[in-house]
Amino acid sequence: MSLAKRIIPCLDVDNGRVVKGVKFVDIRDAGDPVEIARRYDREGADEITFLDITATHDDRETMVHVVEQVASEVFIPLTVGGGIRKLDDIRRMLNAGADKVGINSAAVFNPEFVQQAADKFGSQCIVVAIDAKKVSADDQPARWEIFTHGGRKPTGINAIEWAIKMQDFGAGEILLTSMDRDGTKSGFDLPLTRAISDALTIPVIASGGVGNLDHLADGIIQGKADAVLAASIFHFAEYSIGEAKQRMQARGIEVRL
Amino acid sequence: MSSVVVIDYGMGNLHSIAKALQHADSAVTVTVSADPVVIAQADRVVFPGVGAMRDCMQALQSSGLDQVIKQVATTKPLLGICLGMQALLSDSEEGGLISCLNLFPGHVRRFADDLLDAQGERLKIPHMGWNQVQQHPHPLWEGIPQDSRFYFVHSYYAIPDQAAHIIATSEYPQAFTCAIARDNIFAVQFHPEKSQTVGLRLLHNFLNWNGKPN
Question: Which of A106, A165, B114, B145 is the most buried (most CB within 10 A)?
Fold first, then answer.
């Protein structure tokens, strides 16, 4: 018996409400973040991630309050991503009760920000979020690149090289999202997940594309991920966290029950 | 009414631990402080910490809190968490060789980079997530089932010289010490404030502990 693989439900929060878009459009309202976080905690979630998809300053305040409320009654690790651009953004989220922050675009525009953040707050709270998309043709060796702006803007940066650089800069963990799979419910990009996990010594969270419970297990077994993240299959109560863990256990994966 | 103070020496986020302590026992007054007088007056003291050992020891020494902790360690219930546990050993190899508080003879070492699990899969560093804890008898484990999972995040681990100080172990993949104790001191590598029901129970037990090892 050893370390359990983690299941991390993700709540996409816009203006204080949990939403989940399919490829970032067609957003459906899934409910109150505090209520949903409580439910996930009861069901046995190993961590909870909030992705703040809000653009405006006022709504950012709303997110701080959501984290404060959740942190005073849910005692498992909480990660907040979305709009983290300055050291002060990190400090505010940690003070509100977050344990880790996810840094995405800001890392691409200014990689040294990851270094500064890890030096200041410790690697344990710095999760670098990578949005990757396959750019090679099917008959060529696979190559993935980093995309920004919700998968719309290519950067030309090789995803594997980027992940190694972020690890060297002090990231404690990588949250890897396949922009090809996100919202499709067709499963993780397993070759991508495997390639990144094999290239790193730090843990990798697989994200993007979960449509059923076997996809979660595939991410661990074939993708070699250390944790799996999913949003919509849990929000709309298609499956509970408990069911997900039972399926993973049935497939020989060690989980916390 | 009893009181607990969380020592604030600039290493990491103390809000989580303060909130969890308050939740674990609403009757206790929880304070976060760097003031030696406030710390000296509290009934119980929590010594948390995340980040690097060099920064930790420098912060403690420059503020004089290293002496305050050594004083507390002789008088009242003290709970070390994560880096706050490692700092209780003699030294740590994190960032060279750093002298620590030496309240428990022993060393702090890094996990090897080439660890494999039973299936031959490479193990990641930091050791991050929920792992099982094998307890040795101590009043702070009361009501917590043997082999319960607690939340860990660390790359270094303690190796106490004296086996009698080991109060729990975990496996990654070999057994390592994840909790140490003697007299009125108890310290854990994992994060009870992030370990849901079992973590809150451990904090509750600490807040109601008389400081006796049995």
Answer: A106
Q: Which CATH number fits domain B3-207: 3.40.250.10, 3.40.50.2300, 3.40.50.300, 3.40.50.880?
A: 3.40.50.880
B93 is catalytic: no
CB A30 within 8 A of CB A53: no
Q: A27-81 pLDDT, tens per residue?
A: 455 688 998 999 999 999 999 999 998 767 767 888 999 999 999 999 999 999 9
Nearest C-alpha neighbor of A244 from the set B102, A233, A162, B2: A233
Structural domain boundaries in chain B: 3-207
Say yes or no for a CB contact (<8 Å) between B126 and A95. no
Chain centroid to Cα A216, Å, comes to: 14
Distance CA B197, CA B86 (A): 24
For B45, residues 6+ apart whose C-beta sits below 8 A from its C-beta are B4, B5, B7, B39, B69, B72, B76, B77, B78, B79
Asked if the ipTM is above 0.90, the reply is: yes
The full length of chain B comes to 214
| Residue A38 burial (C-beta neighbours within 10 Å; 0-12, 13-18, 19+) | middle
Whether B142 is catalytic is no
Rounded to whole angstroms, the Cα distance separating B160 from A95 reads: 33
CA gap A207, B198 in Å, rounded: 28
Known catalytic residues of A are 12, 131
pLDDT digits (tens, 9 = 90+) for B66-84: 999 999 999 999 999 999 9
